[in-house]
Design goal:
The structure is a homodimer. Chain A has a domain at about 15-85 and about 100-170: Pnp Oxidase, Chain A. In chain A, a hairpin with a 7-residue loop joins strand 5 (about 75-90) and strand 6 (about 100-115). By secondary structure, chain A is an alpha+beta fold. The radius of gyration of chain A is 20 Å and the shape is globular. Helices cover about 25% and strands about 35% of the residues of chain A. Strand 9 (about 185-190) of chain A pairs antiparallel with strand 10 (about 195) of chain B.
Chain lengths: ~220, ~220
């Protein structure tokens, strides 16, 4: 895998020690998130919308129908910034100023392009596998009318940065010595609860759904 | 409370039935989130960064040091879009096309301004109360040097929209009748795990920290 080579836009300018240049770190953040925040410029103003996504290799697929008027206005290509953030903990320091969060975030810049034909089918497959692994094989296929109505965007993972804070409390030595306030990490846990079957459905919960349930802190969020 | 009055920028154009015009819905989303995604335009390109925030009345406070070169370039005021998203469930439909997510999202547009003096102190207090309620009273105060180094932005909650999807599966009648695939909702739960005290700290875990731990699905994320 090629490392992440910063461009001026993807160069981390603050808390540089939290930057990661390994492409595997980028993949890990993108693969664990459940929604991304898609940023674009509309009439000169920034617009940030949550949307579903999925990754295959070095391509990120996005549900392009989110904010569709804006996307259509900018089609076939639009300059976007896609950010995925995983919050892992609240960091309580002995001083207010050193309070922090543990997190992992990925920021991807580029021009998203509207997909059609086979590429769009593949994008839908990737998006489905990300949101609901197993559903592509289990649920009723997308028909021609549905396929025409949906919009899928693709974005190359060429220009991206990753930031991670995963250490404990970092306080001033004088605060550590004073030992006058509690310091520690409060983990944030995200998991899937028990599935709730639709009242009109008689099909039992399939394994690809029940397998996601559990107390893990490493499940998609 | 005044309802949310849409401007062209904050008018929901897609899935309008998910729009909410009650200001209490806006407050609820903002108060439950842990990070926001701050969007701005830098050299003509969108930039979306995760950052801490807090709300007091109709003012949103933001940690302005995130992406500080960009914020400094645009100071004292910068056009921003701030989005907070809470993911509540993955919705498995009988058809691929009707798969969805339950979520609550708030999108705020406006010009963020750099704070100073008493307003900045108040903003720090609000930011601290949001991230770590109780810490403002418990931990060591911000000193003059720290105060000078930190940056706090304020954004009025004047132009905002809220979207909520909180229903079950919505499938085509023919798919419901076929009853050929599982349909249901897989809840996403976010909670705080047990606090991990810093090895060099002898202060016991205070109540304002331990009170956050629990299996609730309604804790900040």
């Amino acid at each position: 895998m090629t490392p992440l080579s910063p461009t001026p836009r993807s160069t981390i300018t603050r808390k540089k020690d939290r930057g990661r240049s390994d492409r595997a770190d980028l993949y890990a953040v993108l693969d664990e998130g459940l929604v991304c925040h898609l940023g674009l410029v509309l009439n000169g103003s920034p617009l940030v919308l949550p949307t579903g996504y999925g990754r295959d290799g070095d391509t990120l697929y996005l549900h392009g129908s989110t904010g569709s008027p804006s996307m259509r206005a900018a089609a076939p290509e639009v300059d976007v910034c896609v950010t995925v953030t995983l919050v892992d903990a609240v960091v309580y320091a002995r001083s207010i100023n050193d309070h922090s969060m543990n997190y992992r975030s990925a920021v991807v810049h580029g021009r998203a392009r509207q997909l059609s034909g086979d590429e769009k089918w593949h994008g839908l497959h990737v998006l489905t596998d990300h949101l609901a692994p197993g559903s592509w094989e289990h649920a009723r296929d997308v028909n021609a009318k549905e396929f025409a109505a949906v919009s899928v965007l693709a974005l190359d993972l060429a220009e991206a940065s990753v930031k991670v804070r995963d250490v404990g409390v970092v306080d001033e030595p004088s605060d550590v010595e004073a030992d006058a306030a509690w310091a520690g990490v409060l983990p944030v846990r995200t998991s899937f609860g028990p599935p709730e079957t639709d009242p009109e459905c008689s099909v039992p919960v399939p394994a690809h759904v029940s397998a996601r349930v559990g107390p893990s802190t490493k499940l998609p969020r």
